[in-house]
Amino acid sequence: MAPLKIKKGSSKHSAYNLRSNFSDVQERHTLTVMVDNEAGVLARVIGLFSGRGYNIDSLTVAEVDHEGHLSRITIVTTGTPQVIEQIKAQLGRLVPVHDVHDLTVEGATVERELALMRVEGTGEKRVEALRLADIFRANVVDSTLDSFTFQITGTQEKVDAFADLMRPLGMTDIARTGVAALSRAS
């Protein structure tokens, strides 16, 4: 029997090349998880992330079926494809979880976030804040002689862009809801 010949420098049969099928590229994914609406369920889902060192970029939770006592958790997280698959598998094994969907891979989605921003200022800065709010279709939901509170809805990128423009104009406070997402209808 002839010995196996491996070209020098060839990694085809190298034990060090076992990870070649794995990607180190970080991807952003939006996951939806349908769970029982009962005490402790959110803590168990969040515990899965924190216990394994996974980060949550955005988290929203609300009851969506009052009679069925079901809540929908929308989680935006970042990780390698292998980490995302592991997260989905581990979520699916939790007892109160009924359904796990990765909206990022399932097709087109609609994602929106709501934010409230307080901008304090007078004179030209106040006028500029109103002008930019009009361009971004943000609404004034509260007003004093020294400040405005704006409400804006849109993608995370739109909310981020509006906040970046409001900071130099006197933004003092911001509250964000996190991402709410649905698959697009076919």
Automatic annotation (TrEMBL):
Which keywords label this protein? Amino-acid biosynthesis, Branched-chain amino acid biosynthesis, Transferase
Q: Which reaction does it catalyse?
A: 2 pyruvate + H(+) = (2S)-2-acetolactate + CO2
Annotated metabolic or biological route of this protein: Amino-acid biosynthesis; L-isoleucine biosynthesis; L-isoleucine from 2-oxobutanoate: step 1/4; Amino-acid biosynthesis; L-valine biosynthesis; L-valine from pyruvate: step 1/4
Superkingdom assignment: Bacteria
| EC number of the protein | 2.2.1.6
A Pfam family (short name) is ALS_ss_C
**GO CC terms:** cytosol
* First-level EC class: transferase
* Ranges where the ACT domain occurs: 30-105
| Subunit text | Dimer of large and small chains.
PANTHER family linked to this entry? ACETOLACTATE SYNTHASE SMALL SUBUNIT (PTHR30239), ACETOLACTATE SYNTHASE SMALL SUBUNIT 1, CHLOROPLASTIC (PTHR30239:SF0)
**What family, per the record?**
Belongs to the acetolactate synthase small subunit family.
The name under which this protein is listed is: Acetolactate synthase small subunit
Q: Which organism is it from?
A: Pseudaestuariivita atlantica
Supply the source organism's classification. Answer: Bacteria, Pseudomonadati, Pseudomonadota, Alphaproteobacteria, Rhodobacterales
